[in-house]
Structure formats: C-alpha cells, structure tokens
Amino acid sequence: MTSDESMLQVTRHGPEGHVVEVALNRPQAMNAISTAFAEQITAVTAELSADPSARAVVLTSTHERAFCVGADLKERNNFTDQQMTEQRLITQLAYTGVLNLPMPAIAVVEGFALGGGFEIALSCDLIVAGEEATVGLPEVSVGVIPGGGGTQLLTRRVGWSRAASMIFTARRLTAAQGHQLGVLDEVVPAGTAREHGLDLASTIAGNSPVGVRNAKRAMRFGSDVDLATGLQIEDSGWRATALSADRQEGIAAFVEKRAPRWPGK
C-alpha cells in the first residue's frame, strides 16, 4: 500500500527486507483514526502476520509533531449510536491486528500519542519515544473510555494504581514522566526515535525468527495465567524452536564461528 491514497507507508529495511516499517500517513489530521484509516491498519497487519519474511515491525509516523492523536472526533461528531457501534467493530480489528502481530512490534513516538493513538503504541511490544513526546489516555474527558485495549494494556504494563491515575485523570505525560512510570521503554533525543527504533528492530531481526516468534507467543499467552500453566506454554515454545531448522543452523553457526543464515521455518 504505497499509493497516494494510502494512509500507511510500508517500507522494507535491510538487505533482505526483514525489518518492516509501517508509517502512519494521515498528516492533515495528525494521523487521527478514521474508519478508513482503521481498515487500512487491519489490512496491512493481516498481510504482515502472514508474511514469514517479516521479522520485526516498526510503527512510525510521517508527521513530525504527532504519532497519532487518537480517534477522528470530527468524523464521529454527528454519529448515531448505531454508527458508533458499527465503527467500534472496525476499529477493534485494527488494534487487534497490531496486538496480534506474531513478530515483535516497536512503536516509535515523536510528538503526540493520545487516546487511540497511544493505544496503538501500547499494542506494540516496545515503545521508543523522543524526549519531546507527549502520551496519554484522555478518553474520559470526552465522555468515553479507552476502547483500543488501553484499560487492559496499560494496567498490565505499569500496574493498577499507575494506570488508574492516568486514565481517571485523563492527564498527559511528558516522555520523561512516561519513562519513569514504565509507560515508555526508551526515551531518546527528539528526532532520533525512528533511527533508534529501526536499529532495535534490526538487532531483533538478526536473531532466529522461529525463536523470537515463539518467545513472544510464550510471553504473551503466559503472562496472565498461573506459573505452572505459563511454564507449560513456555515448554511448548521451546519444543517448537528446539526441533526447528533454526536451532540446527544456530548451533552450526556458533561452532563454525560465522553469522547464522536462519531458515526461519
């Protein structure tokens, strides 16, 4: 999806294109999430989920001052209750599409990431932010609640009380505050977050794709179960990886003192 009509710009990085950058590209609305925008996110994440050559995904923005400011409230202004409900089903698919990417996903935040925009970032595994970024979930200040996973993902990321403070007050956090609270994983000089995000993705993409995907799956599905069940999930991932061609190649490369050529199967 690289046409002028696209609200997403997809770019492959690296000699084999294993790092995929997905840039939010609706600058006239500071990447506010309209119905059409949500549909494009769903389509692109579905394509990437089915692509075994994609080893890491980096979500960025073409707008210098915003990652994404959340839902398109101008579009919603005259919605009926039925239209709100219908759009809800569409936007849920978009957030779920990001959350369920089988490979690691990194959000790169420069400027504002608010409401649904911050929920897109929370749906990723890691968040790298420029030091001038501003994040928050202000939904209760406009008569709704975070509905893109925010109440669940933020609570799992930072704990009940910190998430409650952010969501109930609708307050915004600076990058420094977000990093201190554990909302953001890494804060870097303004304007360099994309570079740092792509470097991080490149490091991830250099590792076994089978191993990384199975590690993510074990972490995701094992995080909200009891320890014994979580260890069973981990064991399943270990077996799937240890019996793969990637394990054979990884050991051979180590013994031969060379870079691995991952089969990825």
TrEMBL record:
GO terms for biological process: fatty acid beta-oxidation. It comes from the Bacteria. Gene3D superfamilies: 2-enoyl-CoA Hydratase, Chain A, domain 1, Lyase 2-enoyl-coa Hydratase, Chain A, domain 2. It holds the Pfam family ECH_1. Its EC number is 4.2.1.17. Keywords: Lipid metabolism, Lyase. CDD domains: crotonase-like. GO terms for molecular function: enoyl-CoA hydratase activity. It catalyses: a (3S)-3-hydroxyacyl-CoA = a (2E)-enoyl-CoA + H2O; a 4-saturated-(3S)-3-hydroxyacyl-CoA = a (3E)-enoyl-CoA + H2O. InterPro entries: ClpP/crotonase-like_dom_sf, Enoyl-CoA_hyd/isom_CS, Enoyl-CoA_hydra/iso, Enoyl-CoA_hydra_C. Belongs to the enoyl-CoA hydratase/isomerase family. PANTHER family: (7AS)-7A-METHYL-1,5-DIOXO-2,3,5,6,7,7A-HEXAHYDRO-1H-INDENE-CARBOXYL-COA HYDROLASE, ENOYL-COA HYDRATASE-RELATED. This is enoyl-CoA hydratase. It comes from Ornithinicoccus hortensis.
